[in-house]
Every structure is written in C-alpha cells, then in structure tokens.
Design brief:
With about 450 residues, the chain is of the alpha+beta class. The protein contains ten helices and 20 strands.
Length: about 450
C-alpha cells in the first residue's frame, strides 16, 4: 500500500525535530533542524521559516529540498522530497503555525525575537520509508496488543454523564469540581484547570483545578502569555505537543541571543501554571456567544496525549461549562424569603489564635500574617466582610448585598461574582482555614471565624 502523508500524524507533532537538507546554486549542501512541519493537505506541507537564512537562500536558488521525519512512537524514519511553491506571511495557515511558535516565545521571554517570518509551502514529490533504519520487528516484543472491546461506558455515555453533572449542579463549585472529576475518572484527563477573567478582562485567575493538590488556586495568567493566555486573547483552541522539546529549542535560541549581547530584547520567562514537566498542553476557550467566560486547560507528561478527538470532545465540554457558569450567574440570587423568626446564627467559636489581616488600598490586596492571600474584587469582598463582622454586624451575607455596594466596583452585567466567591473561599481554605466562607443556600453565605482578627489598612504595598 502506497504511504500517505495523512498516515504520518505523530510525525507532525514536533516531538522529534525534523531535518531539512537543501543545496545552493554552487552545489554546497546545508542541513539543519526544523522547528515545525505542518500538514497542509495530501500533497503539500508547510515549513516554518524563522532563522534559516542559508536554507532560504538555497531554496531561492534551487527550489528542491529533502525533509526527514521521525515517528516518535515507532521510530520509523520517512524521507520527503519537496519542491518549493510559495510563502505565506498572513492568513489562516500562517496564523496557525505562528501561534505554536508564539506560545514557546512567550514562555521563554522571547516574544518578538523568536517568531515566524513565513510559512513556506512545499509540494511533496515523493514519500518513502527509509529502509534499514530500524531492525526488523520482533514477533513477540513488537506484536500489537489485542484490542480491548468497548465497555458499557462509551464516549457518548461519558459525555452524557458530564452534561448531567453540570445540569444538576446547585452552585458553580459543583459545576467545576464535578466536571473536572468526571474528566479524570471517566477519560483519564488527570491534570485540568479552569481559569476565568478578572475584572480587568486582561488576566485569567485559576478558580478550579484537579491533579495539582491544594496548590494552583488563584494562579494568574495574563492574556497573551503562554498557551492559556493566547487562547483567552484569540478565543480559539490551541494544542501543543512535544512541549518540552520546543521549550529547550526556544531556550537555546534565547541563550544565543544573550551571547550576542542582545539581552535587552528579551523579557522574563513566564512560569508555567500546573505541571513543571508538561509535554503536551491543550487549552480551549469557554464562550457564551461572543463573551469569553473562561479557559479550560488540560496537560499531560505524555507528548502525544492529545489528538483531534480530544480537541472536539473537550471543546464540547468547555461549551457545557460555559453554559453552566452562565446559568449560575443568572440564578445565583436567593428567592425572597420571610425571615421573621429565623434562627440567629450560632455565636463565633472562642478565639484560639490571632490572625492579622492587612489591606493595601492602592491595589486592593489582602495579606494574612504577612503572606499574600487574595486581591482585586475578592480581596475587597473579604475586607468588607471582616470589617462588618468586627463592628458587630451580621455574619451572613447575600450576593445582592455585595452587588449593591458601590465600593466593590462590580460591573452591572456579568460580574462573575460566583467565580470570585469561589476563589476567595478556596484561598481562605488554603492559607487561613480558621476563617471560612460557607455557603448557606443559593445566593447566601456566612463568614465563620475560629480566631481573633486584627485589621490594618495601608496605602500601598
């Protein structure tokens, strides 16, 4: 059977860098590594042009090239004989290839330096498997494992389970935790996180995660930074495989820039939220109409963990989460109740410790016992509640009360209050467990404390 480009899917993931060989008009050959080989269609591939001036000159003089691709699963080596067709510096193909490079550039502090100059399209004249590159397969060691028949929990049934959990959730916390738990238990997406925009609409804040222990809640990513920030900025799905290889490649280029005395062009490296050794990342926008509700991010240590199926499946899940968030946002107010004769809240437990909270009014940032806790609207909410409680006010509060307080500065539409309360509750649980934000019923919660509190306001940090 004649080999087809479409059958070489893993080769195009960038896990093992490809090689390109060209020859100039003077007959001198040049061989170098490629950052990206992109499958355009059954007869064409696109190669990334970044720093390869010698390769570019050779192709201008002699439009033929040879590319070697390696399959990271089988280690088979494929030889592609190519003929240059044209270069693209804008459009969908260029944008798709540029996005992958921009993700790496952002993480390595080389935005504007490590970038795609053009997507060079080549016609594939021949495709052949390089014989003798590997030993013959062992009939026992290299035998394909038997296919396991599908169980009763099919992909569609799993999606139904996730959809039901979102539909039946009573609050936003159940929407997020229920979905991430189902993705892990039913489909082995073990490292996931959900981030939502803050009030500036220029940064994302992590409000739910799975696979990272108690850490990660409150981690921030600026729009445009890394794969997650780019998804938020462009509102389109991005998948990157062989991420570790690409980072090493980008850092090697960064070192070369420093050696050439041009470090002023560089920025600080962006720390990765989540797995420090992630090899594959997939991030998807959560959209409600034209509005960005948040980003669903999934990562793995397996460089070939995600494929087109994962993209399609997880985009459906991301849309479901967005609708769930929108539903909670629209219905998070409690119904009008007759509270006459209601049982007063229990008294605060005797103090066992003293917690010192400091509020920096210039940036709305709250520290507890000298350690950063939370900032922006969640910080202002906490400060309002602590001051009210210390002054002898009620220990129960409603979402409506918060929305009517002009000091908090909540927008009149789509204020994401539920998301901010989740972030505040989880940050308190992690950093100050003897001060708790406890849901009472829909749209109502209580502030419980098991300590004495000291409140200090300062002008700046």
């Amino acid at each position: 059977m004649k080999p087809r480009l479409e059958d070489l899917g893993p080769c195009f993931q960038g896990v093992i860098p490809a090689l390109i060989a060209t020859c100039g008009g003077d007959g001198e050959p040049n061989v170098t590594y490629l950052s990206q080989v992109y499958l355009v269609d059954s007869r064409h591939v696109a190669l990334s042009f970044q720093f390869f001036n010698k390769t570019k000159r050779n192709v201008d003089e002699n439009p033929f090239a040879t590319v070697i691709l390696l399959n990271p699963l089988t280690l088979e080596s494929w030889r592609l004989q190519l003929r240059y067709v044209h270069s693209e510096k804008e459009g969908p193909l260029f944008d798709t290839m540029a996005t992958r490079i921009q993700v790496i550039a952002s993480h390595t502090g080389m935005a504007g330096v490590f970038k795609l100059l053009s997507a060079d399209v080549y016609e594939v004249l021949s495709l052949e498997l390089m014989e003798g590159f590997l030993d013959p397969p062992d009939p026992v060691l290299d035998a394909e494992p038997p296919k396991v028949p599908a169980g009763p929990l099919t992909e569609l049934r799993g999606l139904q389970t996730i959809s039901e959990r979102i539909a039946r959730a009573r609050n936003l916390d159940e929407v997020l935790n229920g979905t991430l738990t189902a993705l892990d238990e039913l489909f082995s997406f073990s490292n996931t996180m959900v981030l939502v925009p803050d009030e500036s609409q220029r940064r994302l804040v992590t409000i739910a995660s799975r696979g990272y222990g108690a850490t990660g809640i409150g981690a921030e990513v600026a729009f445009g930074d890394g794969i997650i920030g780019m998804v938020a900025e462009r509102r389109r799905m991005i998948r990157v495989a062989g991420f570790g290889t690409e980072l090493r490649y980008g850092r090697a280029i960064r070192s070369r820039v420093v050696e050439c005395g041009e470090q002023a062009r560089l920025t600080s490296e962006i720390p990765l939220p989540g797995l420090a050794d992630a090899q594959a990342q997939l991030a998807l926008p959560m959209l409600a109409g034209e509005d960005l509700v948040g980003v669903l991010a999934v990562e793995s240590r397996d460089p070939l963990c995600f494929d087109e199926w994962d993209e399609a499946f997880l985009q459906i899940v991301a849309n479901q989460i967005a609708m769930g968030i929108e539903r909670m946002q629209a219905n998070d107010e409690e119904p009008e109740l007759d509270v006459a004769g209601a049982t007063p809240p229990p008294p605060v437990a005797p103090a066992r410790a003293v917690r010192r909270f400091v509020f920096y009014e210039n940036d709305d940032c709250v520290f507890v016992d000298g350690e950063y806790l939370v900032r922006n609207v969640p910080g202002k909410i906490l400060w309002k509640l602590l001051k009210q409680l210390r002054a002898g006010g009620p220990c129960e509060f409603t979402n409506r009360e918060l929305r009517l307080d002009p000091w908090l500065g909540l927008p009149p539409i789509k204020d994401n209050l539920e998301s901010r309360l989740i972030l505040l509750r989880k940050r308190l649980a992690e950093k100050c467990p003897d001060v708790r934000l406890v849901p009472v019923r829909r749209g109502r919660f209580a502030l419980e404390i098991d300590c004495d509190i000291e409140l200090v306001e300062r002008a700046s940090g």
